[in-house]
Amino acid sequence: MRLPNVLYGVYERRLARSLPAGSMPRHVGVILDGNRRWARSFGEPAATGHRRGADKIEEFLGWSEELGIEVVTLWMLSTDNLGRPASELQDLLDIINDAVGELADTGERTGRWRLRVMGRLDLLPAATAAALREAEARTAGVRDGLQVNVAIGYGGRHEIADAVRDLLRSRAAEGATLEEVADDLDVEHIQAHLYTKGQPDPELLIRTSGEQRLSGFLLWQSAQSEFYFCEAYWPDFRRVDYLRALRAYSTRERRLGK
């Protein structure tokens, strides 16, 4: 529902005040979906939608800071997306590269956030992967503020496979046999080798564009997550949409099996 600007502001402030104190999730994951469909609705090429979606990210991070969120994970490119037509994929990679570089500039200059790039960067062009790693390194000195994970070339199954592979190599370096690893293996051992190691699991996962599936996003970490599916395409996502997601989250009883 679209409201006149004056009423929209009143509604947004009332919605923000209605969120119970202490009800905010520490970690929010977002599937940034609908860029191409947004562009198509205006008769524009896909790249226009991707650029508009990239422009939305810093605004979203600002909202997250205001609301006290500690960690945000943004799914910008999946491993499945790598199969798109070469011309569209190159445009998308260029836009992502620019967007992450700008986020790193802001994080480094202001200390507002620290970037973590997560995904199969080995599947990306070498120059793109190198630029993403360099952007991440530029915010390595940020100790406080928002932690921002950018998932690029990411797939949940790939992450779990990478975690198991990293665990096996780590244990082998310690001299453990495969049988010893198998005997000892438990959930927390794999958890310690995920891309998000050291961070809380996401309590809330948001997907824009009206699609109601996770498509492999944070498969391991989402075991106890709450899901919120928003009709708005990502370029049209507003602060009020975020507040509605947080309100829905605050009303859910999270028993966590207890």
Automatic annotation (TrEMBL):
InterPro entries: UPP_synth-like, UPP_synth-like_CS, UPP_synth-like_sf. Its EC number is 2.5.1.-. Mg(2+) binds at D33, E226. GO terms for molecular function: transferase activity. Its cofactor is Mg(2+). It is an enzyme of class 2 (transferase). Pfam families: Prenyltransf. It comes from the Bacteria. Keywords: Magnesium, Metal-binding, Transferase. Substrate binds at G34, N35, R36, R37, W38, H50, S78, T79, D80, R84, R207, R213, L214, S215. Binds 2 magnesium ions per subunit. The keyword Magnesium applies. The active site is at D33, N81 (proton acceptor). The keyword Oxidoreductase does not apply. Homodimer. Catalyzes the condensation of isopentenyl diphosphate (IPP) with allylic pyrophosphates generating different type of terpenoids. Belongs to the UPP synthase family. Z-FPP synthase subfamily. This is Isoprenyl transferase. It comes from Luteimicrobium album.
